[in-house]
Amino acid sequence: MAPDWNKLGASFADSSSVLIVDVDCTADGERTCQRMGVRGYPTIKYFMSGDKKGKDYQQGRDFNSLKQFADRTLNKPTCDAASKKGCAKNEVAFIEKHEGKSADEIKAVFAEKADELKAVKAERAEAERAMKAKTKEWKKKEAALNKAQNILKQMEKNAA
């Protein structure tokens, strides 16, 4: 697999959105591999923007399969704040809103966005917990209603 992996790395060498790397889990990369949950070799993981854990790649191990997956899944244009290349309209508007600010002002906006993100994640987690509790409650009600229907069917049969 190494020749195809190296060929894949070469094909994305100039990419701003795809980075092909390998880690030797038997040497200096052992801690990284443990942290990422690598148990067998070769293991291929891919990471989308903002994903710290990564996902296991479960498709073909030949160059064409790897390349197709990378092109389809990973090779997405990224927004370059300096040139605005690859940026969506809302990203350009955001950049223009904050252009000309000092490094300290940008750090303050970054901290504000980090706090907002933390709040949204907490709100989402709470909503997911509430939904899980409601789902459990609904399943309990469904089970009770199914049991009631079964009992009523038996009683109807006996009454006839």
UniProtKB/TrEMBL annotation:
**Keywords, ordered alphabetically:** Coiled coil, Signal
Classification via InterPro entries = PDI, Thioredoxin-like_sf, Thioredoxin_domain
Extract one GO molecular function annotation from the record. protein disulfide isomerase activity
Occurrences of domain Thioredoxin (ranges): 1-71
UniProt-recorded name of the protein = Thioredoxin domain-containing protein
Q: Pfam families, from UniProt?
A: Thioredoxin (PF00085)
The protein's superkingdom reads Eukaryota
Q: Family per UniProt?
A: Belongs to the protein disulfide isomerase family.
Q: From which residue to which does any coiled coil extend? A: 110-158
> Which SUPFAM superfamilies does this chain map to?
Thioredoxin-like
- Which Gene Ontology biological process is one annotated for this entry? protein folding
Q: RNA-binding as a keyword?
A: no
